[in-house]
């Protein structure tokens, strides 16, 4: 059970948010506590009237609107009666006993959750302190109620799991839904989930949902005063319909408020930079024909690539990593990831990987040439795996066994064919295909250190003649092991 408390001074906004959800069929009013009429008879104005009467008792309060979301794990099977009971006890335990509140159940996420709209102004005009309410009372109340109702413990479950199971916005289509509601839901979800550090990066994400944040034309009054509006986009990327002021959205995503979010996101996105760099580098190890292939290949990995260009040139690039919900300009990733350098790397793509494969092949051939054939087959096998290689057997065109050397855990599949002496050495030592496969599978499952000990233990009872390679007593016949 996870409770998230949002405090503000816009009771109309908190109420309107939930009522719109109800009108869209994405929520239902479960309970109204402290209202004169039954919940079925309450109009929007009836609800707002009760809250307004209470908040007017203290016009000095900096905050008077409280919006709480209470989230449950998908495994928590709760009926309506239990939801009401849990909410009532939660409100009492955080100090909101006798406060009027509305309880809504929302259906726009994969997990069960409810929203509570209330006020922190008491009937005598005094104010319920909100400072550290979540840390001091809310978390404690959640743990108590989890035990009482047998709910999944959010701490052991990792609280973030519940908080990240949220509604994913759909593309806004003009005329399909009420414009303000559609824009508001999309903007809130993007700000909640994605980490961007500028308005341009934010718009890179928003445009994927047919929405744009707009400052106005440079030198206009709106631009100079730091205004911000949100617009729906048509199929060609043009503004359509009536714009929505940032200040009219419940969470107030104004330019001033967004600047503080941009700043905090600079720290939040840093842990995800290296993983994106690695994915880009790995892709560019293979031949890339042009930027459209580059975009398509990264999109398959959950990364959108946006090239910024004018009539004559490409001047910028933005990466939207939907896996980590992080947005990076190419220059923020490093010199090797700017638009200019990425385009240059297309011509180079694949050449580095080809050179690497050639180097690996030469290394394997050189190793084969320098094997000490006097040490005994068992020790040779031990040394091959110890040095980071592994054996495999195939057949040549005549149907004879051919021994190959490759790298352990290698993704490029480079292997070197053996010379005749190498083939005879291991064939006479009875190194069979079944034995090679057995050792390679053991390596994958247990690692090289355990494999070294395994080889020694596997053959220690019969020493060198386990492989049929007799060194101690050459009069004894060679002994084949049926692998």
Automatic annotation (TrEMBL):
This is Relaxase/mobilization nuclease domain-containing protein. Pfam families: Relaxase. It comes from Rhizosphaericola mali. InterPro entries: Endonuclease_MobA/VirD2 (IPR005094). It comes from the Bacteria. Residues 47-151 form the MobA/VirD2-like nuclease domain.
């Amino acid at each position: 059970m996870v409770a998230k408390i949002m405090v503000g001074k816009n009771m109309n906004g908190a109420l309107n948010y939930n009522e719109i959800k109800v009108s869209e069929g994405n929520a239902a009013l479960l309970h109204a506590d402290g209202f004169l009429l039954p919940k079925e008879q309450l109009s929007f104005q009836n609800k707002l009237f009760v809250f307004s009467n209470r908040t007017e008792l203290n016009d000095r309060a900096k905050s008077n609107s409280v919006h709480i979301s209470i989230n449950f794990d998908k495994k928590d099977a709760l009926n309506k009666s239990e939801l009401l009971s849990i909410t009532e006890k939660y409100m009492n335990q955080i100090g909101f006993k006798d406060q009027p509140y509305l309880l809504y159940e929302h259906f726009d996420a994969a997990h069960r959750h409810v929203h509570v709209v209330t006020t922190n102004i008491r009937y005598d005009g005094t104010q319920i302190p909100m400072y550290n309410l979540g840390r001091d009372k809310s978390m404690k109340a959640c743990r108590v109620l989890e035990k009482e109702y047998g709910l999944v413990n959010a701490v052991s479950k990792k609280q973030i799991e519940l908080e990240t199971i949220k509604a994913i916005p759909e593309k806004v289509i003009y005329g399909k839904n009420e414009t303000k509601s559609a824009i508001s839901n999309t903007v809130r979800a993007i700000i909640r989930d994605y980490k961007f550090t500028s308005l341009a990066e934010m718009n890179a994400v928003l445009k994927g949902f047919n929405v744009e944040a707009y400052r106005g034309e440079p030198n206009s009054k709106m631009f100079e005063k730091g205004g911000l509006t949100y617009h729906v986009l048509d199929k060609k990327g043009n503004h359509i319909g009536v714009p929505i002021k940032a200040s009219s959205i419940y969470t107030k995503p104004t330019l001033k408020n967004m600047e503080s979010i941009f700043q905090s996101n600079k720290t939040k996105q840093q842990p995800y930079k290296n993983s994106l760099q690695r994915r880009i580098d790995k892709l560019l190890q293979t031949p890339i024909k042009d930027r459209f292939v580059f975009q398509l290949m990264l999109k398959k990995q959950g990364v959108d690539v946006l090239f910024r260009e004018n009539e004559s040139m490409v001047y910028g690039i933005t990466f939207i990593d939907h896996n980590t919900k992080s947005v990076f300009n190419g220059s923020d990733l490093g010199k090797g990831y700017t638009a200019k350098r990425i385009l240059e790397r297309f011509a180079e793509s694949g050449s580095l990987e080809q050179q690497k494969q050639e180097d690996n092949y030469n290394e394997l051939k050189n190793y084969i040439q320098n094997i000490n054939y006097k040490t005994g087959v068992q020790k040779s096998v031990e040394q091959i795996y110890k040095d980071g290689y592994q054996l495999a057997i195939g057949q040549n065109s005549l149907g004879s066994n051919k021994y190959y050397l490759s790298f352990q855990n290698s993704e490029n599949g480079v292997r070197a064919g053996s010379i005749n002496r190498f083939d005879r050495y291991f064939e006479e030592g009875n190194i069979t295909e079944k034995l090679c496969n057995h050792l390679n599978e053991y390596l994958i499952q247990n690692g090289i250190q355990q494999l070294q000990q395994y080889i020694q233990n596997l053959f220690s009872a019969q020493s060198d003649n386990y492989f049929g390679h007799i060194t101690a007593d050459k009069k004894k016949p060679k002994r084949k092991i049926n692998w």
